[in-house]
Amino acid sequence: MSGIITSADGIFVLTVTALWNAPLVLENWATDRAWETEAVEMAEFRMSIDGKLNKGFVPRPITQSLNFSAGSSSLPYFEALITGQRKGRQIYTLGAELTLPSLGRKYTFINGGLGTGSVAPNGGGVLEDRAFSITWEDVFPAGI
Fold this sequence. Notes:
Elements (H helix, E strand, L loop, with lengths): L10 E5 L8 E3 L8 E3 L5 E5 L5 E5 L4 E7 L6 H14 L5 E7 L4 E13 L12 E7 L1 E6 L1
Antiparallel strand pairs: 1-2, 1-7, 3-6, 4-5, 6-9, 7-8, 8-9, 8-10
């Protein structure tokens, strides 16, 4: 490891085959928190009355937040997703790949769906960042 942990060289590619024939390279991320994946609870534990620990694996979805600058060219893609889902009353299936050259790692996200999203920017002194939430079936890490 080189000790470099920048996220500035990260490449996040989104696929929505129902809408676009080519992968979408997302860009112009929010400054303070570009993407965030929640910790996944993957087990349940129960203590029996005689003090024995019982445990079991329970599959859970993985929730990820994506945050973009108000001026991001990626926003029209998410606006199209929101509009399509609301008008069509359907959820599009998403896929993604996050490549982090500084770590030499790649993450593949499968069978996702857009769950929440900012429908318009909030105004303040300047327009604020916009957030979107995708829920994934699974995420697979790998080396580059």
